[in-house]
TrEMBL record:
Record-stated family: Belongs to the ROK (NagC/XylR) family.
One Pfam family from the record: ROK
Name listed for the protein in its UniProt record: ROK family transcriptional regulator
Gene3D superfamilies: 3.30.420.40, Winged helix-like DNA-binding domain superfamily/Winged helix DNA-binding domain
């Protein structure tokens, strides 16, 4: 069975390869990488059987991937098999790594993920970024990136690229933040302000969170709405295993769907947006709590203890989420709504009112509402894994780059 190629950013090396002899070779290299990544360790013969190529052809491809440091041989397969044992192949624990970064309103985070999907290095800086100009924030982020890259290199890895998750709209050039209301950033090209030696991709944090759910989630369907919350509310739409990006790449801005058109002013310029009722700060206000670090954990703790003000605030947030999601569910008919980010930790108290609104307002049967196991790690992991997936999709593009 041919291993599927996966969603990557349109500007990345995962784009469609040309129908030439060279393009066919590159596609076959990708098929080998995806097969070993998904099912390995495997022998050459097992890979050949799964992708429908001759063993000789697969051996040539495998030798190239081993020379490039993308695959490694683990030694003979387990004893007891009939015939001469083949050498087991696995994705290398050395070689390329995906560097993921996240710019949050109240934190910066960076991690390195190897081709096996294992996080090998991580750095986090807590502190508000709201109202700060982009340059000092990106200087700090660059310092964290270099720290993580240095740690990864000590582990025998090298960075294949950098993907940055941001809480805002990103242009089709995959590096310019058009608008990030909760940071107060407008038309910021991140390219000149980040390490120039690393191929760069920038995308909305909810998009990366949804891709992480698609790639790493437990039995995630191929058609779903992903909703996450930190300071704001992020949304992303996955249709048939691919992100629905929209004409300008801005699809999924659920947080600025009006829930009550005459409601309070939002940072986006509108009124009564979902963020004003279900964002982290809105829930804290409704519960009578002040903003601060680890307030989501505090909300969950107080709700679990039976605090009625907190439970009422979360019930109201769930109602607002249900109202905002109704239009998307009626329009797109997804298999599920997946709650991620801070919503995952608060799901026990949000879901009942959210599900009631969906059941009451949707035209068809009620849509399933599930909870991500990735929680707030989703955007960072999705960013790093997007680089890894790009390597798997086109290993020839990174071979010999280091």
């Amino acid at each position: 069975m041919t291993a599927p190629l996966h969603e990557t950013h349109p500007s990345g090396p995962g784009r469609r390869l040309p129908d030439t002899q060279q393009g066919m070779r590159r596609r076959n290299l990708a098929r080998v990488m995806h097969t070993v990544s998904a099912e390995g360790p495997l022998s050459r013969a097992a890979v050949a059987s799964r992708i429908g190529l001759t063993r000789a052809a697969v051996s040539t491809l495998v030798d190239e991937l081993i020379r490039s440091g993308l695959l490694e041989e683990l030694g003979p397969e387990r004893p007891g098999r009939v015939g001469r044992p083949g050498s087991a192949l696995a994705v290398s624990g050395h070689g390329p790594a995906g560097i993921g970064a996240e710019i949050g309103v109240d934190h910066l985070a960076v991690c390195a993920v190897d081709l096996r999907g294992i996080v090998r290095a991580r750095a986090v800086r807590h502190g508000t970024n709201r109202g700060r100009s982009p340059q000092p924030v990106l200087v700090e982020l660059t310092g964290l990136v270099r720290q993580v890259v240095a740690e990864a290199e000590r582990e025998g890895l090298w960075p294949a690229g950098l993907a940055v998750a941001v809480p805002g709209l990103v242009a089709r050039d995959a590096r310019t933040v058009v608008r990030a209301p909760n940071l107060d950033w407008h038309d910021v090209d991140l390219g000149p302000l980040l390490p120039p030696e690393l191929p760069l991709t920038v995308d909305n944090e909810a998009n990366f969170g949804s891709l992480a759910e698609l790639w790493l989630g437990d039995d995630t369907p191929r058609d779903f709405l992903h909703v996450s919350a930190e300071i704001g509310i992020g949304g992303a739409v996955v249709v048939d295993g691919r992100l629905l990006r929209g004409t300008r790449g801005f699809a999924g801005e659920l947080g600025h769907v009006p829930v009550r058109p005459e409601g309070p002013q939002c940072a986006c310029g509108g009124r009564g947006c979902l963020e004003q009722y279900a964002g982290e700060e809105a829930v804290l206000r409704a519960a009578g709590l002040s903003p601060g670090e680890d307030r989501v954990a505090l909300l969950a703790e107080l709700a679990a203890q039976g605090d009625q003000d907190v439970r009422l605030a979360l019930r109201g947030a769930g109602t607002a989420l249900g109202i905002a999601l109704t239009g998307a569910v009626n329009l797109l008919d997804p298999q599920a709504v997946v709650l991620g980010g801070a919503l995952a930790a608060l799901a026990p108290w949000l879901r009942p009112s959210l599900e009631r609104e969906l059941a009451r307002r949707t035209a068809g049967p009620a849509c399933a509402v599930t909870v991500s196991r990735l929680g707030p790690e989703g955007p960072l992991l999705g960013a790093a894994h997007s680089v890894v997936r790009a390597v798997l999709d086109d290993p020839a593009a990174v071979a010999g780059r280091n």
